[in-house]
Amino acid sequence: MNHTTATDDAEESDMYEHFSFTADRGQAVVRVDKFLTNRLEHVSRNRVQNAADAGNILANGTPVKSSYKVKPLDVVSVVLPYPPRVVEITPENIPLHILYEDDDVIVLNKAAGMVVHPGHGNFSGTLVNALAWRLRDLPLFAEGSVRAGLVHRIDKNTSGVMVAAKNEIAHNRLAKQFFDHTIERLYVALAWGTPAPPEGAITGNIGRSARDRIRMQVFPDGEQGKRAVTHYRVTESLGYVSLLECRLETGRTHQIRAHMEHIGHPLFNDERYGGNVILKGTTFSRYRQFVQNCFEALPRHALHAKVLGFAHPSTGQAMRFETPLPQDMAAVVERWRKYAGG
């Protein structure tokens, strides 16, 4: 019996997991929900049935219902939203900028500075605490799960559009879209220098750095980390910095930030990836002061999740949400426009 699991497809890392099993030659004919429940640790039959209802269980590549009978040598795979973690979530009445909401999904514009879910010293004030308050009457949020409804995340100091699910079926179906890379995600970044060529794809596996565990590292030889592809396009050259659109083909932790550092163009004021010092430009003290003023006006890395597109989990309708640059980032871009023009 083969068993593979692939998690960490992230900035949605740990939001879902993928399992694949090949039934033995001597496999007795058995319902697929029972087959999977027997093989998955700490996964209830109810969770498996929800995955089947969402179309997330495949037998030999074809979606099947819970009642499907597994036969010898069938290849059965399943994508499950990550199970709840045992951490008590306190619902908190935190204001959210909601772009769209219905019975299945909630789409919002996350402010820079807000952590998506509790952990590593941030156990309150997070997006999950806010959702736990707003959606406290829904079964999915009643258990106080750390990742209730989440199918992806964006960094604390990245602003922009996110989606969360409001029920199990929506949670499963959105998780499958992220796993299949069918989600549209477009970011706007301000980076040091101007990449050449002005449009291209950055490839290079991304994994955690062995030297510094809070940084991600690009492994261009592909022997470590996980496959990552960022498509970029320079939309405006502003002298010593440039404005880019970045489309995510995959969604690894810190993907854009690590990839831009890897090609020698870290994001403006990205402390973790070396963008918080003057990397391009003159030695004039007036220029140094100008950059310092920009750093103070934008005290975070210059990255905004501008567009999110997905298929609605119930209707299948194409949904697309676009958010403007937040004030801090827009103001610094405008300062660079004036500087480049002058």
Can you walk through the features of this model?
The protein is of the alpha+beta class and 342 residues long. The chain has three domains: 3-81, RNA-binding S4 domain (Structural Genomics Hypothetical 15.5 Kd Protein In mrcA-pckA Intergenic Region, Chain A, Roll), CATH 3.10.290.10; 98-179, Pseudouridine synthase (2-Layer Sandwich), CATH 3.30.2350; 184-341, Pseudouridine synthase. Helix content is 23%, strand content 29%. A hairpin with a 3-residue loop joins strand 8 (98-101) and strand 9 (105-110). Helix 1 (32-39) packs across helix 2 and helix 2 packs across helix 5.
How many domains? The number is 3
Helix content: 10-25%
Terminal-residue CA separation:
67 Å
Helical region count?
Answer: 8
CATH class of the largest domain: Alpha Beta
Q: Hey, roughly how much beta strand do the residues contain?
A: 25-35%
CATH architecture of the largest domain: 2-Layer Sandwich
| Main sheet makeup | 9 strands, mixed
Oligomer kind: single chain
